[in-house]
Amino acid sequence: MHRVAKVLSGIEKAIVVLCYVLVSLMVINTSVGVFFRFVLNNALSWTDELGRYMMIWVGFFGCYLAARDNSHVGIQMFVALFRPGAQKVMNSIARLVVIAFLVIILAKSGEQLGLLGIQKSSALEIPMAIPYFAVTFGIFMMLIENLAQLFGISGAAEKASSTDNMGI
Predict the structure, then answer these.
(1) Is 7 within a domain?
(2) Which residue, 51, 62, 66, 60, is CA-closest to 136?
C-alpha cells in the first residue's frame, strides 16, 4: 500500500506542475490575445478557444487536487449529526456514494469521447476529444483518490481523519 501512496504523491506533484505551467500559458495566451485585439486591431481567432480549453484542464486538475486535500464541499453537516463513532461509518458511506457517482460520470464521459473524436474545434481545429478528455481524466483521478482514501492508502486520508473534514 505504501507504493500506491507514493505513486499517488508523484501524480499529485506532476499535476501541480502542470497546473502552474497551464496557468502561466493562460496568462501569456490572454496577454497575446489582448495585445493583438486592442493594440494591433487584429484579433487572433484561436486565443479565446485555447484559453478556454486550458482553463477546463486546470479546473479538472484542480478538482483532483481538491479531492486529494479533502477540500471539496462536503456533507460534514450531515455527518456531524452523529456520534463520533458513527461519524467514521457515515464518512465511509458518503465516500461510497461519491465513488458511485464518479463511476457513473466516468462511464458517461467515456461514451462521449468516442463521439467527439471526429468533431474538430472551430479555431484550433483539434479533435474535440482533447478538451473533453479533461472531464474523463479529472473524474478518473478523483475516483482513484476517493478509493485510496476509503482504503486508507492516501496521505490525504490521514489528514482528513485528523481534521474531521469530509471533503468530497
Answers:
(1) yes
(2) 60
Task: State the cell numbers at 122.
Answer: 472551430
pTM value surpassing 0.85 = no
Predicted confidence (pLDDT) per residue in 23-55, tens digit: 999 999 999 999 999 999 999 999 999 999 999
Considering just the CA atoms, what is the radius of gyration of the chain in Å?
A: 19
AA letter at 154: S
Among the listed residues 50, 59, 62, the one whose alpha carbon sits nearest the alpha carbon of residue 26: 50
Q: Within a domain: residue 168? A: no
Number of folded domains in the chain? 1
For 72-105, write each residue's pLDDT tens digit.
666 667 777 888 888 888 888 888 998 999 999 9
Distance, CA of 166 to CA of 168 (rounded, Å): 6
SS3 165: coil
Name, in order, each residue with C-beta under 8 angstroms of 121's C-beta and a sequence gap of 6 or more: 49, 53, 127, 128, 131
